[in-house]
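Lecture 7 notes: from sequence to structure.
We start with the chain below.
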Amino acid sequence: MSKNITDAFLKKRIVILCIIAALLLISGICAIFISRELLPQKNGAIAYIYSDGELVKQIDLSGAGDLSFEIKSPTGGTNTVTVKDEDICVSHADCPNGLCVKQGFAKRAGVPIVCLPNKLVIIVKNKTGKEADYDAVTY
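Predicted structure tokens for the same chain:
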């Protein structure tokens, strides 16, 4: 009778150890996927710059170096776009609110820079052409 009790306890311990191992494996896989989404996508990003809904410029951020240029909008306004350290931002704008300048650098794919008064949109995508699947960071 004591042997049956010992076998039952041993089976329960094996089942518990298997469940713990499975949970550790699943949590490790989830941690890998989450960390890939939260890390900035520095290498392999392409910035698409639209003015009034039309593609004006396409820049490979990994090979662009440091540069700055102006984009004139159809409404008469101008935006100065700056690329530095594989990131892109609007460094100067003559729009009334300047929210596009305050937004800063687009450090990861899926976070667009928008200037509504000057009708400018900058979208950063990875080299496969996909934006981020979901936004895991709240700004």
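Points to note: The two ends are 63 Å apart (CA to CA). The mean pLDDT is 83.
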